[in-house]
Design goal:
By secondary structure, the protein is mainly α. The model has no long low-confidence stretch (mean pLDDT 80). InterPro entries: R3H_dom, R3H_dom_sf, R3H_sperm-antigen, SPAG7.
Length: 172
C-alpha cells in the first residue's frame, strides 16, 4: 500500500511533497525505506508517538532548513513569510557590517551626567559656576602667601633625612 502511494506521488506532477497520516514507528520506518529506494527525501514530524507523521519530498523540491524547522514546530510552511524573514536577516547583517565599518564607539559614558542630575544642579548651574572661577578656601585652594611651609618637597625630605641621621648618631 505504501509503495502504491509513493508511486502515485512520484507520478503526480504538481505535487512537490506529500504528508502521510500519523503512523507507528514500524510503518514510518517502512515508509522511509520505500521513499529512499524511490529516490525521494523523507522526514518524520510530530511530538509524541501517536501523532508522528512522515512527509515525503521530491528531490528537486528538497526542503530548506527553515522549512524543516517550521514543520518541526507544527506550523505550515509559507514561502512568502520565509522570504521576508530572509530579507530581514540580510538587512540586519548589512546593518551590523556597517556598524563594524564605522569603528568602535567613542569612549565615554553612554549618557550625559548632567541629564541624570539636572534636578540637583539645574540646567545653568554648571555654566554659572564656571564663569565665576573663584577659589573656595574650603576646598583647599589656598594662595601660596597664606601657606606656612614654603619649602619644596625635596627640601622637606632632605631635612627629614638629616634629622634621622642626627638621631642615629646620638644613639651610637
Amino acid at each position: 500500500q505504501m509503495e502504491q502511494e509513493v508511486s502515485q506521488f512520484i507520478q503526480a506532477t504538481g505535487e512537490p511533497r506529500r504528508r502521510f497520516q500519523p503512523m507507528n514507528k514500524i510503518e514510518r520506518s517502512i515508509l522511509h525505506d520505500v521513499a529512499e529506494v524511490a529516490g525521494l527525501t523523507s522526514f518524520s514530524f510530530g511530538d509524541d508517538e501517536d501523532s508522528r507523521y512522515v512527509m515525503v519530498f521530491k528531490k528537486e523540491f528538497a526542503p530548506s532548513d527553515e522549512e524543516l524547522e517550521a514543520y518541526r514546530r507544527g506550523e505550515e510552511w509559507d514561502p512568502a513569510r520565509a522570504e521576508e524573514r530572509r530579507r530581514l536577516r540580510e538587512l540586519a547583517a548589512q546593518q551590523e557590517e556597517a556598524e563594524l565599518d564605522r569603528g568602535p564607539a567613542p569612549p565615554g559614558p553612554p549618557n550625559d551626567y548632567k541629564d541624570k542630575y539636572r534636578h540637583l544642579i539645574g540646567s545653568d548651574a554648571a555654566k554659572a559656576a564656571a564663569r565665576t572661577m573663584e577659589a573656595n578656601k574650603a576646598y583647599g585652594c589656598v594662595p601660596v602667601a597664606n601657606k606656612r611651609d614654603t619649602r619644596s618637597i625635596e627640601e622637606a625630605m632632605n631635612e627629614i633625612r638629616a634629622k634621622k641621621r642626627l638621631r642615629q648618631a646620638e644613639d651610637e
